[in-house]
Amino acid sequence: MTLIDPLPLVSGGLDRDASARLDELALDEAWRDPATRVLRVQPGSKFPVREIDGRCELDLLEPLGDRSEAHSYLGKANGAPVFAMIATHVDGYAEPANGWAHPFSFATDLDPLGLELLSVASAIVNWHLAMPFSPRDGSETVPVQGGWARHDSLGGEHFPRTDPAVIVLVEHEDRLLLGSNALWEAGRFSLLAGFVEAGESAEQAVVREVFEESGVAVDGVQYIASQPWPFPRSLMLGFRAKLTVGADPAQLNPDPNEISELRWFTRAELANPSPDIRLPQKLSIARWLIELWIAEGDRE
Asked: Is residue 5 assigned to a domain?
């Protein structure tokens, strides 16, 4: 496989220190560590940022007060414990000097470890916001295990939810199929994607989603890589597939409810897109997969 830049959000640099989640004494010790930092997150995955030398960084702060169930233990970053919490007006912290921002506006400034912290914090905070009550009996739930689980009144355990979705490089004769979502502005294109349905394998979802969105039949499905997409709780499973032998690439039938335009692109067109073509943002696995495909052509 051609080597390109590492896939964003998955550096592996964060030591999740999972054993500490089950040890209240270890969590208290981590909270008291002078190197410990806290990452606040607003609903909607907005983060506090600060600007240094023209680049944005996550505004990590020292702990205030005692550790509570409101603090989720993310693990250790370069040996320093890091906790995440939902930002409120009464949490004792001052507003960040450079305000709050969604990752889409600044994440490309962050190093790989910063991106991973952002991803994990967003996923865990969004889950806590969505799980105040048990789906089994409607009772209130409380955080346990350092924020990595919640218990309901009957002792039932609930864990962070992740929804798997497939995203696909559809290839045919050195061309790549991209679609423009019906909700996007004209000229914005990306790979075809969709959620895995109940009782369905990821490979089945690739074939089904591509056909439903484009009318194109594919086979030769191959897994490439995955990326967490915690906005709010998806896991993107990257695949590639080829047009089924005998299928006509010109016979495109976009789903009018989801896709406004489908086009085949050459590597040259994607390596240097015209001003009226916008590709996915660099934070996404969609852009990473497209750049992987382009780079493979450079080696041929």
From this structure: no
